[in-house]
Design brief:
Number of domains of chain A: 2
CATH superfamily of the largest domain in chain A: Aminoglycoside phosphotransferase (APH), C-terminal lobe
CATH class of the largest domain in chain A: Alpha Beta
Helix content of chain A: 40-55%
Number of strands of chain A: 14
CATH topology of the largest domain in chain A: Aminoglycoside 3'-phosphotransferase, Chain: A, domain 2
Order of helices and strands of chain A: EEHHEEEEEHEEEHHHHHHEEEEHHHHHHH
Structural class of chain A: alpha+beta
Strand order of the largest sheet of chain A: 3-4-5-9-8
Largest sheet of chain A: 5 strands, antiparallel
Shape of chain A: globular
Oligomer: homodimer
């Protein structure tokens, strides 16, 4: 059994062998599964944590997630507070109240050993993997817009008294996790940094980005917004690898996971994370010449998510606690969120091409396709960021991509 | 001796008779003045606190400020945490470190009785009173720009590690005081509310403001920014009644007081408070036909403050802790602050005409002049708020006023 030391104290890490006795010793968890017949698999393929999927002989399941005191992707040289599991439990608790159909059931958190227990999502799969295979899951984009809107509304000053929002904002600060985003998303891709990597053929595109003073100042404004705009308790890392998906009778369903980066930030950041990752999937689809049905579906995801977000915000708006916020204000605020979403979406896409923590959408492509897709993503993202004020909304995201795609494909 | 009860506990209020023994019992304060020869005057003419000015036989002085557990302007029916004295001490401590020449010397805070001790500014006077008399104090506008820039820079992520900023932001939340601003500045003037009052002749102007959907949504965006944009530890109430002034050999000097509304908010709010109050002074000067020298000086205050703010930000910029913020970002951020300043300035001016807590600049005018000045202020503020994105900076504030002034004067 490994003992990990943190700034605060040491705590025992779980192993597949110790999970059953851990569950047996916890009355709440012991009721959910039969610990004596438990099968346990450690499947943490993410960047930060241990994840144990457990199933008993009757088919009942549970998922345990234990925070490591360092970044798993990098190793013990990059320490990271395991307290982040408390951030995850904060977000999951809110989501369980307002969108229980869009998150795994939440069973509680062990604050001494930084273990969070939740539903084992049998039969679900990470959305990114399905996108990579070209699978269509209709309606998932809309469900994620619904998720963002409900989390945002219910934790913001639209739903809570201002005193409550300010106390929640203070309690939910998550500086260590935010620092990762600040550095990996908004800073490192635009400078020389050991964390960056890309194929040589992409160097001219990267150099162009880095020497683009306008892009750099716009990315700076977005970073500043990420660091100062405390609008609502956002997920903070809502890419297509943070969504579990399955389809039944042609309708997709979704469960949002991994909200450990949550903090009070700009609502457009969650939408941007989705839109930026849709762009990565779109680039892949384009260079692999996926069929028209799939391409059109992926092309429509950004607007599908936005429309559901907007519809849910407008549905909730009449319930706002302070009725002196006018309808005109909502329109103006939504426009601002849409601009943020395009800008953040661009930043989230660029970091996946240049910076640390690549994505399989692009990394698993053959060399020529990789270069074309990466180029499309960088150029589209650049325009989203710089022209987000003028583009007039998320629906324009698609047109920008189509122009870039045509130019890149023509050059080959 | 009056005992006040708060949510937390009871504490004794000071009176002119008990101040000397209070000072004698505090070793730090007892060194500053001779408590046995102390003369004490209670001069709290503000809206919130008890203020005791003390002087001993040798002419040495001290000022004690004790927070009441309610809003003095309204009475015990409006309770308000005396903890706000801790907010004031937070801001004063920072200012003492970065702009000691622009704040009263700070002698410490008694957290049990909510008493803050500072320099007794003999010979200084509230700036608003001097403006009302038409006195020129050259350079004061620039000093206030210097104050805002240094406070903003030194408490922001430009000067502090992001972890420190987030912890400071959480510790400095000041929801009860912020609520006053949210309600009195951004909400009540635009709706029917018992706190509002204005002469009947102004009713058409007020009705026009309230029915202006564009203005209402822009004020909403500014309120939302005030409630969510945690850029730096701002003063939070920087009107011309929060500035003490005197002149020596034709050069004005300034001391900023009363930062109890401080919290992490948008930097443009402090600049806006100044600019909005310059507008009130300007309206008064216009209708009283003050001499050209005075009018030109008041007309130049907004730009003088802005230019000093910008110059100080640019002077400090090379010392930023994160050098990946580009110079282009600074330009873009300053442009955003200027827009905020115009918008917040408009809101601050309007509330002084319509809402609770009027200002003597306008209230002491004879009826005809009062109406003309109030009309000028409302119309100028309206344009600042709605056109702040297009106006191109604080220098345009003046042109808007000149157009409005000409129209109002012509109609008489």
């Amino acid at each position: 059994m490994t003992a990990m030391s943190t700034m605060a104290s040491e705590y025992e890490l779980l192993t597949p062998e110790t999970v059953a006795s851990y569950i047996a010793s916890n009355p709440t968890l012991a009721e959910l599964v039969d610990a004596s017949t438990l099968e346990v698999a450690e499947v943490g393929d993410g960047n930060l944590n241990l994840v144990f999927l457990c199933q008993d002989a009757d088919g009942r399941g549970i998922c345990l997630k234990q925070a490591l005191p360092y970044v798993r992707l990098v190793g013990e040289s990059w320490p990271l507070t395991p307290q982040r599991v408390l951030a995850e439990s904060r977000s999951l608790s809110v989501a369980a109240a307002v969108v229980p159909h869009l998150v795994p059931a939440y069973y509680g958190t062990d604050e001494d050993r930084y273990v969070l227990a939740m539903e084992n999502l049998f039969g679900w799969e990470i959305w990114r993997s399905k996108l990579n295979r070209g699978e269509i899951h209709r309606g998932v984009g809309a469900l994620l817009g619904e998720y963002v809107a409900n989390l945002a509304f219910s934790t913001s000053l639209f739903a809570l008294d201002q005193m409550e929002v300010k106390q929640q904002t203070a309690q939910a600060i998550n500086p260590e996790l935010c620092r990762i985003t600040e550095e990996l998303v908004f800073t490192e891709p635009y400078i020389e940094h050991d964390n960056n990597s890309f194929v040589d053929e992409l160097a001219p595109e990267v150099a162009a980005l880095r020497s683009d003073a306008c892009l750099r100042s716009e990315v700076g404004l977005l970073k500043h917004r990420f660091m100062t705009a405390a609008e609502a308790l956002i997920h903070g890392d809502l890419h297509t690898g943070s969504v579990m998906v399955r389809s039944t009778d042609g309708r997709g369903d979704a469960r949002v996971i991994d909200p450990e980066f949550c903090y009070y930030g700009p609502v457009g950041f969650d939408l941007g994370a989705l839109i930026g990752n849709y762009l990565l999937a779109r680039g892949r689809a384009a260079v692999l010449y996926r069929g028209a049905e799939y391409c059109e579906w992926v092309a429509g995801l950004a607007e599908e998510t936005w429309n559901a977000f907007e519809a849910n915000m407008r549905r909730l708006w009449p319930t706002r606690v302070d009725q002196t916020w006018t309808d005109g204000f909502l329109d103006a605020w939504l426009q601002q969120v849409a601009r943020d979403a395009l800008g953040f979406g661009g930043c989230k896409a660029i970091r996946r091409i240049i910076g640390l923590a690549k994505v399989s959408d692009i990394e698993t492509l053959p060399p020529d396709e990789h270069l074309r897709a990466a180029t499309m993503v960088l150029r589209t993202a650049n325009t989203w960021i710089k022209e987000r004020q003028q583009l007039g909304g998320v629906s324009a995201a698609n047109e920008v991509f189509l122009e870039v795609e045509a130019a890149v494909m023509q050059n080959d």
